[in-house]
Amino acid sequence: MRKYKQVKEKKVVYSLEEWAVIEHRAAKLAMKTGTYIKRILVDGQINYYSVGDITPVMNALRIIGNNINQIAKKANETHSAEASTVEELRKEVDALSRTLSQLVFTAQSNVA
Question: Which of 70, 98, 100 is nearest to 86 (CA)?
Answer without folding.
Answer: 70
